[in-house]
Amino acid sequence: MDWFDLASKTREIVKNWGGKVVLIFHNDADGLASGTLAKISLEAMGKEPTMYCIEKMYPEIVEKIHGHHGNALFIYADIGSGEIELLERVNQGRVIILDHHKTKPPTTEKIINLDPELFGMNGGEDACGATLTYLFFKEYIPREHIDLALVGMQEIPGEPRGLNELVVKEYGKDPKKKLDRFGKIPKSVSRDLTILGSVGYYQEGVRLGLELAENGYTKNIKDKIKEFEDRRKAVVRELLYSLKLKETKNVQWFDAGDAFKGMGTKTIGTFCSFLVHKNIAPNKILLGFMNVERKIPKLNGVELELIGNYSKVSARAPDLVKARITGGEIPGLGQLLAKACSDLGGFADGHDFAASGIIPRGKQEALVLEIERELGGEEQKGLSGWIS
Ligand SMILES: [Mn+2]
């Protein structure tokens, strides 16, 4: 069955659903665009979705959402497709996934996975979450909100391809020009949504992001974007000034602790992406850690809080590490981190040159050792013997 056939069959399930509907979406620009498109559409269908905006698929959080809402219809937008097994374990209702990350086919018909990866497309190139959500709900979406798909696809580099290209054709105007509803080009709107949802995650940023995506800019939204970004930049300046990288044979790392407190965990990734182009060792994997806050920001759902204390880790590959990965000498960072994090009771995903994960707090140095072990079967020296 092709994507559009499954989408229209699945749309019938949503239309005819008599019970509760729960909408779970990611907190980056594509996630907020996807969440908004789904919310508008469900409301147009006469449904009132209970909404959760999450940064990662924390098993304990996903479990709680499903435990609380039981036999509801759960719609995942721009998140979820990487955790099919977790969803199979916790789901007691129906699940529909509109996501484009690496995935696998579900083994139960209670879960419908519309990830383009399962339809011969490349999720990292041919579609974004907002495009999938737009195409899925199209008949319920006001014509002008097609711009949210253009905003969502900004996370994918290069010219639009596959389903994204299809939506751009349907938009019918120059996709690089200012959008009527926003008065800005898609890239700028995407940047602003990222600041609201990711930097402002713990400070009502998600609510403001949804408001921006649905209704456009207000003075308050513009002020908040500036305030969040100014604060983030101040923290970055402070960190750059005080930063000392610890080093082992293949890894260089630092722990930002609570420096980014009040901001979402994407901030550590953004900081590492910036640092990787600075004067650091070109031949060692860069790892940055930060503390994860326990409380998940509340929209209209139940209170959610992480049970454990966690650290977020971001991994980046400087030039010589990229060469080692490309040459097949060492595995990609996504693979490396996924193994190391899961061995320590956490989880991770990502690409060859950039990846991120979650580990129980206190295991930061253990993670460095785990990576060293994976990379070379170094004899165990203990961390102190490696720090230079
Ligand atoms: Mn996305």
Structural shape: globular
CATH first level of the largest domain: which class? Alpha Beta
Named once each, the bound ligands are: manganese (II) ion
Mean pLDDT: 95
Specify the structural class: alpha/beta
Order of helices and strands: HEHEHEHEEHHHHHHEEHEEEEHHEEH
Counted up, domains total 2
How many helices in DSSP terms? Answer: 14
Q: What is the annotated CATH architecture of the largest domain?
A: Alpha-Beta Complex
For the termini, the CA-CA separation is 56 Å
- What's the story with the biggest beta sheet? 6 strands, mixed
Strand content: 15-25%
Summarize the amount of helix as a percent range. Answer: 40-55%
Adjacency order of strands in the biggest sheet: 6-7-8-11-13-12
Radius of gyration computed on alpha carbons: 21 Å
How many E strands? 13
Low-confidence stretches: none
Q: Kindly identify the CATH topology of the largest domain.
A: inorganic pyrophosphatase (n-terminal core)
Structural overview:
The longest helix has 24 residues, at 219-242. This protein folds into two domains: 3-197, inorganic pyrophosphatase (n-terminal core) (Alpha-Beta Complex); 243-385, Roll (Diaminopimelate Epimerase, Chain A, domain 1). The chain contains 14 helices and 13 strands. A hairpin with a 7-residue loop joins strand 9 and strand 10 (304-305). Helix 8 packs antiparallel against helix 9 (205-215). The chain is of the alpha/beta class. The model has no long low-confidence stretch (mean pLDDT 95). It binds manganese (II) ion (MN). Manganese (II) ion binds at residues 30, 78, 100, 128-129, 155. Manganese (II) ion is lined by residues 30, 78, 100, 128-129, 155.
